């Protein structure tokens, strides 16, 4: 009886959080990287805008800057404003509107914000590089490094610091890559490697790694039927080997081409952050970020998330 009552309370609590989707409604937002810093959740998303003739590439992704949002209760969100803009990073091509999915992590009193963008220096290729901006507070002000991280070409950076203090950078470029980071969090410590044993067909991007009960969960969107499905693989070490384990969110649950996830535990509950194009049903490159509760099976498998709509 007591157990049933707890389940009902849990269900009500879940509904209360879910009922807000999407939870940022005054601007478009995508690719949410959520982090718990102190007693607040900070979300570092991409900021979708609309490219027009002469400004970026109309009909495509268009992002010029990043905001950070925070909340103590996942209901009331504070927009801390722009933390990094394509106009204030030396190496970024400011005509690119290419400030795609970022991440942020805390180490030794500093917050390290990782972001991909196309650089000015086309001799290094037209593709994306990944830069870092550093701050003393999670909401900034952030100071961008003058150069992107060497030997990293791709998008969707994600950083994980293991219990032994070793930091890892994950990113994607067709495949998902991993490399150790030096303690300064600004340089690779060794060569990047492609993470093996992931699906061979269909684009995989947006890596996000978290640890629970000694198991490492590598989560990623994987294109199925032209729509990204959120999947995960599990392993015993941050660099793998990983074994493809399951689906977090089916592609049939969203009509949006892209999806992009992060996972946190906050006040004893796990949450999945992701996006959909709720506020722009006709144009799926103007997206909005969502939260849903995440649950695990007793053996550690992730239970599929059914998105909560408005
Ligand atoms: O937001 C631009 C790109 O779309 C991201 O980098 C991908 O993960 C996808 O969400």
UniProtKB/TrEMBL annotation:
Transmembrane segments: none
One GO process term, biological-process aspect: xylan catabolic process
Keyword Hydrolase listed: yes
Keywords: Carbohydrate metabolism, Glycosidase, Hydrolase, Polysaccharide degradation, Signal, Xylan degradation
Residues with site note (Important for catalytic activity, responsible for pKa modulation of the active site Glu and correct orientation of both the proton donor and substrate): 156
One MF annotation (Gene Ontology) recorded for this entry: carbohydrate binding
Top-level taxonomic group: Bacteria
Family membership: Belongs to the glycosyl hydrolase 43 family.
Name the record gives this protein: Carbohydrate-binding protein
Taxonomic source organism: Filimonas effusa
Span of the entire protein shown here: 1 to 310 of 444
């Amino acid at each position: 009886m007591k157990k049933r009552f707890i389940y009902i309370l849990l269900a009500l609590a879940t509904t209360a959080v879910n009922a807000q989707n999407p939870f940022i409604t005054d601007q478009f937002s995508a690719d949410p990287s959520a982090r718990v810093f102190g007693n607040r959740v900070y979300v570092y998303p991409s900021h979708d805008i609309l490219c027009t003739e002469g400004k970026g590439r109309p009909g495509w992704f268009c992002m010029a800057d990043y905001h950070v949002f925070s909340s103590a209760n996942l209901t009331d969100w504070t927009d801390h404003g722009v933390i990094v803009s394509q106009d204030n990073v030396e190496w970024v091509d400011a005509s690119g509107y290419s400030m795609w999915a970022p991440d942020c992590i805390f180490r030794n009193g500093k917050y390290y914000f990782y972001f991909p963008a196309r650089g000015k220096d086309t001799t290094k290729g037209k593709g994306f590089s990944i830069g870092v901006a550093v701050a003393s507070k999670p909401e900034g002000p952030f100071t961008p490094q003058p150069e992107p991280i060497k030997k990293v070409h791709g998008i969707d950076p994600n950083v994980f610091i293991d219990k032994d203090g070793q930091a890892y950078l994950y990113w994607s470029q067709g495949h998902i890559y991993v490399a150790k980071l030096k303690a300064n969090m600004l340089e690779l410590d060794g060569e990047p490697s492609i993470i093996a044993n992931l699906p061979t067909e269909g684009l995989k991007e947006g890596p996000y790694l978290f640890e629970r009960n000694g198991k490492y969960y590598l989560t990623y969107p994987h294109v199925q039927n032209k729509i990204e499905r959120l999947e995960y693989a599990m392993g015993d070490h941050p660099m793998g080997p990983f074994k493809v384990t399951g689906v977090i969110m089916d592609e049939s649950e969203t009509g949006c081409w892209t999806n992009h996830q992060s996972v946190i535990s906050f006040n004893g509950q796990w949450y999945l952050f992701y996006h959909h194009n709720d506020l722009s049903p006709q144009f799926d490159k103007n997206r909005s970020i969502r939260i849903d509760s995440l649950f695990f099976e007793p053996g550690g498998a992730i239970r599929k998330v059914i998105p909560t709509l408005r």
